[in-house]
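Handout, section B. The chain below has 225 residues.
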Amino acid sequence: MRILVADDEKDLVAALEELLKRERYTVDTVFDGQSAYDYASSDNYDCIILDIMLPDIDGLEVLRRLRADGIKTPILLLTAKSDPADRILGLDRGADDYLPKPFVVGELLARIRALTRRTSVAETPELSFGDLRLDRVAFTLVCGKTVKHLGNKEFQILETLIRRQGSPTPVEYLMDHIWGYDASVEPGVVWTYMSYLRRKLEGIGSNVRIAMRRGFGYILEERNK
């Protein structure tokens, strides 16, 4: 799952980024309102953590614009303000939840889990292709009676390929959507993970393979076709 964190407190953002990555999330970070709006409106996120007091454009205005654009991504507002009116305004503008600063890390994680459960997992708890089933709740790959646990990046890659079945997925797309825009990732890292996944698909006896269409990208195919 991908999370956008927008806050101008860089030490806090760095700590949140490290925490969320340990929890198996892919994280993009920005430090001003304009960047928050640009990132949130140009890509798909499972959750947005949005500080109210941002430079350039404040968080409430970012929220208003995103909802006006029809973007329904769950948004958790962070606020250092004690005035309930700001929280009420945020909820009225379309925020899904809010959390006052300073906050307890465990509560933040619980709120993120609750928000993402309501949307992505509740909507599509399982994805499938050929004889494969991808359990998005347990983070497992199922083929017949065989259940295989996947690493975070492996899971996200396979999830992306299943969602885009029928359309080749370029390496650059995977780098942007799984490692994030700011990550220093070389194409060779993607190739390595594809090798891991291919071995795992063969190991569980699946008839699905990951094919590479030169110039277009990776795509899932069934061997019996």
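Note. The longest helix spans residues 105-123. Compare this with the example in section A.
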